[in-house]
């Protein structure tokens, strides 16, 4: 067992390209067969496996530090792991064994790259070759309360353009009770001002440009 883990590049064996930080003696190391640049390490008396992602390493000058992303996974926190093995073909899947004889089939969740398009579609990575998407037409999107989608939907229904005859129509297309009440009040105020029935104290008609 070793408490020092080094990664070597066979094209240049003068020194290791990087050294991995470990807190206890390492009992096992294994490269992931379905993911380039991902190595797992198991320390003695540990319920967790550490994953070291060195995929972003680029050979550079001697003073250049390679980028390594390290995280831990804990398939079963109730016991220490005695051994583990990657699945030979299934992406990011491994099997762990504990000292109590318990086996755990575990799938390693990838860090996702999330993008939000100009049309309000959420797109993220799912594995090496798959992208998943949720757009404004998906039922789950209603829970996001996205104001951009609301603005786009109202614009498509000509929100704010009903100004000549019926102002209340602007509120009907929003689906929002507060906006509907507001536009209904504006329509009623406009009608009163237009007919001359809305007057200030003293009988002065409340009709002049800019006020409804």
Automatic annotation (TrEMBL):
Protein's GO biological process: cellular response to amino acid starvation; positive regulation of TORC1 signaling
Gene3D superfamilies assigned: YVTN repeat-like/Quinoprotein amine dehydrogenase
Gene Ontology cellular component list: cytoplasm
Chain ranges passing through the membrane: none
Domain (MIOS-like alpha-solenoid): residue spans on this chain: 152-211
PANTHER family reported for this sequence: GATOR COMPLEX PROTEIN MIOS, WD40 DOMAIN-CONTAINING PROTEIN MIO FAMILY MEMBER
Protein name per UniProt: GATOR complex protein MIOS
Gene source species: Chionoecetes opilio
